[in-house]
Amino acid sequence: MGKVITAKRKEGEAEQAQNYIKTHILFPSGLLGLLAMVIGVFALIYQLIVDTYDVFTFAQSSGLLIVGIVLGLIQTMYHKFILREHPEFFASRMKRMGQSNAQRKKKPSSEVMLTHRGRKLVPVWYIIGLVSIIGLSAWSFSSGALDYMAAFAWPWAGFFWGKMFSWRGVIDPPSRSKKKNL
């Protein structure tokens, strides 16, 4: 009987972890990626209108987009590892998000702590990624090839959309059969 209960609890944790990823990772990534893409496109259209668009503009904007996509894929690989090895981490976050602020303050934190090899290096990698995006954006703007809005927006558009599209096949969209039955 204990194995059945444990298996059901694991299934519930995996489902809660997937719900957390859908609501707190994928939805914001899609929205922020779209916003950054629109800003970047309008900035490049502006450069085209004022006649400062050239080959270097195309190369640097494409490079920034690719760097953002690569960094988004790397972060998603780490999140997929957590989902695969420690789904209880995302499940506990989802449970915590379901509580009201008063309940969060009363109850001690039931957040599951991650313990895996290399855990202490994760913040260092996040800082390296952030500094590389900001540094490359500043370099693109200072070189004169990109407007500051395009230089800032393109790597973030790539980052957020790289995150969003790399979850495809891991997190299933809501099934259409549920919609037909309603």
Computed Rg: 20 Å
Overall 3D shape: elongated
* Quaternary assembly: single chain
Order of H and E elements: HHHHHHH
Fraction in helix:
over 70%
The largest sheet, given as strand count, sense and whether it forms a barrel, is: none
User: pLDDT under 50 segments (min length 5)?
Assistant: none
Number of strands: 0
Terminus-to-terminus distance:
34 Å
Give the amount of beta strand, in percent. under 5%
What count of structural domains?
1
In round numbers, the mean pLDDT is: 85
Helix count equals 7
- The helix/strand class is mainly alpha
Quick recap of the structure?
With 182 residues, this protein is mostly helical. The protein has seven helices and no strands.
Question: Which key terms come to mind for this protein?
Answer:
mainly alpha; 7 helices; 182 residues; 0% strand
Layout of SSEs?
Blueprint (H helix, E strand, L loop, with lengths): L1 H48 L5 H31 L1 H12 L2 H6 L15 H21 L5 H19 L9 H6 L1
Description of the molecule:
This protein is mostly helical. The protein has one domain (2-107, 120-168). The chain has 7 helices and no strands. The chain has helices at 2-49, 55-85, 87-98, 101-106, 122-142, 148-166, 176-181. The protein is elongated, with a radius of gyration of 20 Å. The protein starts with a helix and ends with a helix.
